[in-house]
Design goal:
The protein starts with a strand and ends with a helix. It has two domains: 161 residues, Leucine Aminopeptidase, subunit E, domain 1 (3-Layer(aba) Sandwich); 317 residues, Zn peptidases (Aminopeptidase). The strands form three sheets. Strands 7, 8, 9, 10, 11, 14, 15, 16 and 18 form a nine-stranded mixed β-sheet that branches. It is built from 14 helices and 18 strands. By secondary structure, the chain is an alpha/beta fold. The structure holds ligand BES and zinc ion (2 copies).
């Protein structure tokens, strides 16, 4: 639980109190808002332990002499000397959370450095996000000794007399985004025998309870009626029924409609075009696009923004079986386009195509954003540091790129074009599902583009960022990052 406080720091009796300091541009001790703490900082600086550099942590034990302070520990956290931005405070929150967890602190207090020239609202919002994401753990399936247990129970952020409606709202926004990232990580961390298409459907129904969001599940029988040959085809080898989760948030006003689509492949073995067994366990993460969309919708249900948002999560497993789709099979996607399936491992685009075509026809959205762990090729191009962005609309692309920068989930745009679309032409069907080795991320997006018509659309390929994401204090080294959820929430908050 995170809350704002204006109590005198001396009255905090918890496990750790945290002061933030900047690194001075010239030689000298970093400066801190409290004169007594400053004495300690000076001493630590003199012996060379405290420079204020970014992500530096100096742990001190306040003694009696140290008037007033009753906290068990005092942490001096460095903010560096570069220009301050939102990401700096997110990372600072993550760093404090990591330190608190490793020291098994249950109650901590952060003295927000309100003396710095940075808007206090954004500081609070980003510290909260970083604290939540940085203290994330997934230990459900591990028996733990009681003395191994680590959990931060109460976090106070001290902003002195600056508590106001706007700082409280900022905290709420930070908590909402942070929680969404954590929810997306939880879904991804669950193994594929637990996080099934049915689990996605159940979560959707849970979001709809008591909120303005409506949830409808398109079951296999209805998919057949609707002729959704993509998701049905990919599902052919699986014993788990496919689901298309539809979540609708409506304001009841005449406002734009955003359509969010997320790939919810709960396990991707490759199907008959079987993947190598080494590392195949990671393919339980092939639902991270769906998780991001689902987590964002949960936040949207609580935040009640001013735009309509519809979410579609096509979800199934991709497994080999005598009933499975075979290379060379021709399927018919929703809306009638035929696809020659050259490689059954290029399945994400098949389930997304149905959802995109259905979404365009049924909801006539103003804009579409889809998220998918779609291609290994995006990892070769961009590594684990940026998601790939492809779009048929410059203005929308810029908007999403900006939201990504704002939330610390950066992207890089790749081109689309006729040359790439030509790579997916088929001799026997309208198109085929792979375009050969060159430009794998682009040809995958070119495939999706066939199903969005003229609707402004952005595709995010998160195969490189959804897990083992670039190292930061608030993202786990290994495992799911929860990427995308916070960007989507930001986009919806800012949508004009
Ligand atoms: N889910 C994978 C993409 C993926 C690969 C994500 C590695 C994360 C790490 C997707 O369904 C897939 O298998 N794509 C193929 C496409 C190919 C057959 C054209 C790929 O990228 O190898
Ligand atoms: Zn695949
Ligand atoms: Zn896949």
């Amino acid at each position: 639980m995170i809350f704002l406080t204006n109590k005198k720091p001396g009255r905090f009796k918890g496990d750790m109190i945290v002061y933030f300091v900047r690194q001075p541009s010239k030689k000298g001790a970093p400066q801190c808002s409290d004169t007594l703490v400053q004495e300690r900082v000076n001493k630590a600086y003199q012996v060379g332990d405290c420079s204020g550099k970014k992500e530096e942590c100096v742990l001190l034990y306040p003694e009696r002499v140290f008037d007033g302070v009753q906290a068990k520990r005092l942490l001096i956290a460095g903010l560096g000397k570069d220009d301050m931005d939102r990401e700096l405070f997110r990372r600072a929150g993550g760093m404090v959370a990591g330190k608190a967890l490793s020291l098994k602190c249950e109650r901590i207090c952060l003295m927000a450095p309100t003396e710095l020239n940075f808007p206090v609202e954004e500081m609070v919002e980003c510290l909260a996000e970083g604290l939540i994401l940085g203290s994330y753990q997934f230990k459900k399936y591990k028996k733990e000794d009681d003395d191994e247990k680590r959990e931060i129970k109460r976090i106070s952020i001290n902003i002195g007399n600056l508590t106001s409606l706007s700082t409280r709202k900022a905290l709420m926004l930070g908590v909402s985004s942070g929680n969404a990232g954590a929810v997306a990580r939880d879904m991804a961390n669950e193994p594929a025998n637990v996080w099934t298409p049915a689990a996605f459907a159940d979560y959707g129904k849970k979001i709809a309870k008591g909120t303005k969001v409506q949830c409808k599940i398109i079951e296999k029988a209805e998919m057949k009626q609707l002729k959704m040959g993509g998701i049905l085809g990919v599902n052919q080898g699986s014993a788990q029924a496919p689901k298309l989760v539809v979540l609708e948030y409506r304001t009841g006003k005449k406002v734009p409609t955003l359509l969010l689509v997320g790939k919810g492949l709960t396990f991707d073995s490759g199907g008959i075009s079987l993947k190598p067994s080494a590392g195949m366990e990671d393919m339980k993460y092939d639902m991270c696009g769906g998780a991001a969309v689902m987590a964002a919708m949960e936040a949207i249900a609580l935040e009640e923004p001013k735009v309509d948002v519809v979410a579609l999560i096509p979800t199934t497993e991709n497994l080999p079986a005598s009933t499975a789709l075979k290379p060379g099979d021709i399927i018919t996607q929703y809306g009638g386009k035929t696809v020659e399936v050259i490689n059954t491992d290029a399945e994400g685009r098949l389930i997304l195509a149905d959802a995109l075509a259905y979404g365009v026809e049924k909801f006539a959205p103003t804009a579409i954003i889809d998220l998918a762990t779609l291609t290994g090729a995006v990892i070769l191009g961009l590594g684990h540091h940026r998601s790939g962005l492809l779009s048929n609309n410059d203005a929308l692309a810029d908007k999403v790129l900006q939201a990504g920068d704002y939330t610390g989930e950066p992207m890089w745009r790749l081109p689309l074009g006729e040359e790439y679309t030509k790579q997916i032409k088929s001799e026997v069907a309208d198109i085929k599902n792979i375009g050969g080795r060159p430009a794998g991320t682009i040809t995958a997006a070119a495939f999706l583009q066939e199903f969005v018509g003229d609707t402004p659309w952005v595709h995010l390929d998160i195969a490189g960022t959804a897990w083992n994401y670039t190292e930061k204090p608030y993202t786990p080294k290994k495992g799911p990052s929860g990427i995308g959820a916070r960007t989507l929430i930001q986009l919806v908050r800012d949508w004009k």
